[in-house]
Design goal:
The complex is a heterodimer of chains A (160) and B (773). The radius of gyration of chain A is 16 Å and the shape is globular. The termini of chain A are far apart. In chain A, a hairpin with a 2-residue loop joins β3 and β4. Chain A contains six helices and five strands; from the N terminus they run ββαβββααααα. In chain A, α4 packs across α5. With 160 residues, chain A is α+β, with helices and mostly antiparallel strands. Chain B has four domains: 214 residues, Alpha-Beta Complex (Aldehyde Oxidoreductase, domain 3), CATH 3.90.1170; 162 residues, 2-Layer Sandwich (Aldehyde Oxidoreductase, domain 4), CATH 3.30.365.10; 200 residues, Aldehyde Oxidoreductase, domain 4; 156 residues, Aldehyde oxidase/xanthine dehydrogenase, molybdopterin binding domain (Aldehyde Oxidoreductase, domain 4), CATH 3.30.365.10. Chain B is 27% helix and 27% strand. In chain B, the strands form seven sheets. Chain B has a seven-stranded mixed sheet with strand order 3-5-1-12-9-10-11, sandwiched between helices. A five-stranded mixed sheet of chain B has the order 7-15-14-13-8. In chain B, strands 18-19-27-28-29 form a five-stranded mixed sheet, with helices on both faces. In chain B, α10 runs parallel beside α18, α13 packs parallel to α14 and α16 packs across α18. Classes of the chains: A alpha+beta (160), B alpha+beta (773).
Chain lengths: 160, 773
């Protein structure tokens, strides 16, 4: 099958993909660029483990074709992680035991980073809404909610 | 002191940064990919297979069918004892003449990429002669039913008959009797299964990435099937996205992927897709009870009389009949009931084969027993908690021998003060506090469930601890990890005994190349068996270090002490030597302790290394738990809202409260999924009709109530040094029962609510509304 060249920005750096038209963006990021943090849990757009940010919005990497990403600005879990250590949200997820097996975690981290970048002090309802498209089979969500609420509360008290 | 502290998990950072390495993240040079062609029919004969077009597709390396498997290859064996001989029902890695469920592997396609392999699958031509599919276990055992196997559709019939059930029933003052069923559902880990097999033909060595749970067992099973030496195969567990009992058993693919890698002489990776996962991984639960419970005038339960029919699916897999076996063995639960009878039937149908799912047999038995006990309490007109309290096993009766057995081990509760925990739980929840029965037309109900969860099963576990010259500690565990936090808790135990900080300890696990024997992870056994193996090896390291320091420095062992990762002499304020220093002294070839090179070889030091294997305990460790919940029900629509959920349990001793709570809360939510949402439903043709996440609904964040875990350390396990009991199954185990009881209480109904999942239709039906099936 003929391959197509796609030029895009990934985590702030220019990148090129050479992909079949049928290849998903998630597959291309994983297979072509080695960004294996985006996970494929269902490949039909329900579980959310592959969620990435495309041009500022959360997108299911499994439902978007790589060829659709020409010129796009893509951010993955690798892109929201600091050079070393953990971001504030990541550290809160660890502190509140908001992950167990870690498979859904990159998607959770990405949507929470997106939420907090748009709204540094989200309400509980807004946090719930933000992660409602992400399935986690291990934690029962309580630790994830507690982590995000704690970050929001810290922002509130520091007036971030 | 690290044991018992809410230490944040050492494994979290890599997952949070997207740096976990799961099976699909591994590649090898010249790797090709596999796709499995699966049966589209529930029951059919294979008349002919034509691979010509598929093989001609560019990029296809090989296609293997049943005809290509070695002559005389044995089917995949059960790894645990069963009730009776189930060998006629075992599964071969590929179907030959007949397929018995939708999703049964028929061929393996190896191609340059997964996409090309899937293209080739479209080109495979198979002539099927469809046979009638058998999907209802009751009809499967009727005379004249289509036989799925030559040995018939009734795979097993067995049971227990303790005490005098007919006598107790005839003398009973109160009897409640009803049928209860638990739908087919399963673990559904977020990561699908996958394997990457690489064969070094010249050396006859096979490496496999992707196995988990019981890697040594699987390695040995594969070695037997391939005719290889056990140590010639290395199974390596990567990061694993959840198991909950289902993932990591030996499946057909665990033979097929190594087999094709050996055939094409290239590394072969297979990553299951989600739709495939639905049809291929073990399903679970799927059983129906008929329960009769009897009591005398004083509210003493005098008998349980039970019938149990379990739908095993189309083949018996590695777990055998462990689900109905555990259900039958533990059915009487935490109650001192000596008259107990169960008649269990295991039935084959044209559905995906079954195995365990978190709290196997227990979620099921607890639902049936505890719903029946609520019926009995309602008949007697006494408080539901009070009826349970009157019948609890008393602390002075421990250890309690139920009189049953499962997987050839007697069911024994090692320790516990059930009445004390029950009282504390009821008080903490406010069970007796009055509550508003109606809110905006919705009815509120309160439910509870008491249960005992066995844990820490299995024959043994092993650990090797190595301390290097820098004082870094490596723990090589025979156990495995699918997200529970074992890298943290095992390090905590070593940290405490060796007085070494967590940062200097690494836990490695799930790899047959790093330790000779291993038991694996199931039944909450890693905290118990793996944890005690770490404890034992750590104590061994401490002793070895003290002995070495004593010899080297000429100080009596009694005058030496291990603290802060070093050996100290009494109360002097300088350490004599660090653990790293001891490790260097004990390296073979080091002359500091032994003599210089000799005329003949003599035994040398073997490092600051200790291997410890600990033997399993028949009884395991029994965890007592009480679940309670408040539920709102809309009597017009059958809609429900769980307002709060509560679990109290006695875990003996907590290794890490953060992880204990996480296990309970996460487990409850899985239980809620099984109670309200999840169902692997089949139509009459044997087609799975809920085979995507759009049809098979799992709890999302909106489906979760506030959940409180009240954890006691009242009765340490008497069967292990650490005193720990398992916590993995306590969460889901009582949810179906508790919610069913709460809804029945809300609607003040004494019928219905006996079939899971509790859909709005069934809830309406229980009040006489609705009329829908």
């Amino acid at each position: 099958m003929k391959k197509h060249s796609v030029d895009l920005t990934v985590n702030g750096r220019e990148a090129s993909l050479l992909v079949e038209p049928r290849q998903s963006l998630a597959d291309a990021l994983r297979g072509e660029l080695g960004l294996t943090g985006s996970h494929l849990g269902c490949e039909h757009g329900v579980c959310g483990a592959c969620t990435i940010i495309v041009d500022g919005d959360p997108v299911r990497g499994c439902l978007m074709l790589a060829v659709q990403a020409q010129g796009a600005d893509v951010v993955t879990v690798e892109g929201v992680s600091p050079k070393v250590g953990l971001s504030e949200i990541q550290a809160a997820l660890r502190e509140f035991h908001g992950l167990q097996c870690g498979f859904c975690t990159p998607g959770m981290v990405v949507v929470l980073h997106h939420l907090f970048s748009e709204n540094p002090r989200p309400s509980e309802a807004e946090i719930r809404e933000a992660i409602s498209g992400q399935l986690c089979r291990c934690t029962g969500y309580q630790g994830i909610m507690n982590a995000a609420k704690a970050v929001a509360a810290r922002h509130q008290s520091k007036n971030v | 002191m690290t044991i018992g502290k809410p230490v944040v998990r050492v494994e979290d950072e890599r997952f949070l940064r997207g740096e976990g390495r799961f099976t699909a993240d591994y590649t090898l040079p010249f790797m090709v990919e596999a796709h499995i062609f699966r049966s589209p029919y529930g029951h059919a004969r294979i008349a002919a297979i034509n691979l010509d077009a598929a093989l001609a597709l560019k990029g296809v390396h090989a296609i293997v069918t049943g005809a290509d498997l070695p002559e005389g290859l044995a089917p995949i064996q059960c790894r645990i004892p069963t009730h009776g001989d189930l060998s006629p029902y075992l599964q071969y890695p590929l179907a030959r003449d007949k397929v018995r469920y939708v999703g049964e592997p028929i061929a393996v396609i190896v191609a340059d990429t997964r996409a090309v392999a899937e293209d080739a699958a479209e080109l495979i031509e198979i002539d099927f002669d469809p046979l009638p599919a058998v999907t209802d276990p009751a009809r499967a055992i009727e005379p004249g039913a289509e036989p799925i196997h030559e040995s018939g559709n009734l795979a097993g019939r067995w049971g227990f008959d303790l005490g005098d059930v007919p006598g107790a029933l005839s003398e009973a003052a109160f009897i409640a009797s009803d049928s209860f069923s638990i739908q087919r559902h399963s673990a559904m880990p977020m990561e699908t299964r996958g394997l990457l097999a690489s064969y070094d033909a010249g050396r006859n060595l096979l490496d496999i990435y992707g196995p988990t749970k019981v890697v040594h067992t699987n390695r040995n099973m594969l070695a037997a099937m391939l005719g290889m030496g056990e140590a010639e195969i290395r199974m390596i567990e990567p990061d694993v996205g959840g198991s909950f009992g289902a993932r990591g058993e030996f499946y057909p693919e665990d033979y097929l992927i190594p087999f094709v890698a050996m055939r094409v002489r290239r590394p072969v990776r297979w990553i299951e897709d989600r739709v495939e996962h639905f049809a291929a991984i073990n399903h679970s639960r799927d059983c129906a009870f008929h329960v009769t419970v009897a009591a005398n005038r004083d509210g003493i339960i005098t008998a349980f009389d039970v019938k149990l029919v379990t739908d095993m699916g189309s083949y018996i897999r590695t777990h055998g009949d462990v689900v109905p076996s555990h259900a039958a063995a533990s059915f009487p639960g935490p109650y001192r009931v000596r008259n107990y009878r169960i008649d269990a039937m295991t039935v084959m149908t044209n559905k995906t084969p079954t195995g365990t799912y978190r709290a196997p047999g227990m979620f099921e038995a607890n639902f049936a027993r505890e719903r029946a006990i609520d019926r009995l309490a309602d008949k007697m007109g006494i408080d539901r908690a009070e009826l349970r309290r009157r019948n609890l096993i008393q602390p002075e009766e421990m250890p309690w021998y139920v009189g049953t057995e499962s997987v050839k081990r007697p069911t024994i509760f090692d320790s516990g003060n059930f009445p004390l925990i029950m009282d504390r739980a009821l008080k903490a929840y406010g069970w007796d506090a009055p509550f508003e029965r109606e809110v905006n037309g919705w009815k509120r109900g309160r439910g509870l469930c008491a249960l005992v969860e066995p844990s820490g099963l299995g024959p043994f576990e092993g650990v090797r601890i190595e301390v290097d010259q820098h004082g870094k500690v490596q723990i090589f565990s025979g156990s495995s990890n699918q997200g529970q936090g074992h890298e943290t808790i095992l390090a905590q135990i070593a940290s405490e005994v060796l007085t070494v900080p967590m940062e200097k300890i690494r836990v490695r696990h799930g790899d047959t190349g790093i330790i000779t024997f291993g038991g694996g992870t199931y039944a909450s056994r890693t905290a118990i068996m793996g944890g005690n193996a770490v404890h034992s090896a750590s104590v061994g390291v401490r002793q070895k270090a003290l002995d070495a320091a004593s010899r080297k420095f000429g100080i009596a062992v009694e005058d030496l002490d291990l603290r802060e990762g070093a050996i100290w002499h009494g109360h002097r304020n300088e350490p004599v030597v660090t653990l790293g220093g001891i490790a260097r002294m004990l390296m073979p070839g080091n002359q500091e302790i032994l003599v210089s090179p000799s005329a003949g070889n003599i035994p040398d030091n073997d490092g600051l290394v200790v291997t410890s294997y600990v033997r399993g305990v028949t009884a395991g460790a029994a965890v007592f738990a009480v679940h309670m919940a408040d539920v709102l029900v809309d009597p017009e629509t059958g809609e429900t809202k769980v307002e709060r959920y509560f679990v109290a349990c006695d875990v003996g001793r907590q290794l890490n409260p953060l992880i204990v709570e996480g296990q309970i809360v996460g487990g409850v939510v899985q239980g809620l999924g099984g109670t309200f949402l999840e169902e692997l439903a089949y139509n009459e043709d044997g087609q799975l009709t809920t085979g995507t996440f759009a049809d098979y609904l799992m709890p999302n964040v909106y489906d979760v109530p506030p959940i409180t875990a009240l954890v006691f350390e009242e009765s340490p396990a008497l069967t292990n040094v650490l005193g720990v009991k398992g916590v993995g199954e306590v969460g889901p185990s009582g949810v179906g029962a508790t919610i069913g009881n709460a809804i029945a209480n809300a609607l003040a109904t004494d019928t219905g609510l006996n079939k899971l999942p509790l859909t709005p239709e069934r809830i309406l039906q229980s009040t006489g509304f609705g009329g829908l099936q």
